[in-house]
Amino acid sequence: MMENGGQHKEPRTLYGIAASPGIVIGRVVRVGGAGQGRHRHYRLHAGEVAAEQERFRAAVDQAEQELAAIRDQLQAHCEEPLGIVDSHILMLRDRMLRGRVTEGIASERVNAEWALELALDRVEALFAGIKDSYIRERFRDVEHVAERLFRLLAGEVTDPLAEVGEKVIVMARDFSPEDTIRMRTDRILGFVTEMGGATSHTAIVARSLGIPSVVGLERLTEEVADNTMVVLDGTAGRLHVDPSRDQLEQFREQQRQYRRYTEEVALYAHLSPVTVDGLAVAVNANIEMVSELGVALEYGAGGIGLFRSEYSYIAAAALPDEETLFGVYQRLLAGCAPFPVTIRTLDIGGDKFASAVRWGGEANPAMGLRAIRFSLREQGIFETQLRAILRAGRFGTARLLFPMISSRDEIRRIREIVGRVKEGLRRDGLAFNDGIPMGIMVEVPSAVALADILAQEVDFFSIGTNDLIQYALAIDRVNEYVAHMYDPLHPAVLRMIRQVVDAGHAAGIEVGLCGEMAGDVMCLPLLLGFGIDELSMHPLAIPYVKRMIRQSTIADVRALVETVARCSSSLEIRGHLAAFLPQRYPEEFAGGGGLQRLLRGEGG
Question: Which of 40, 459, 462, 590 is surrounded by the most beta carbons within 10 Å?
Answer without folding.
Answer: 462
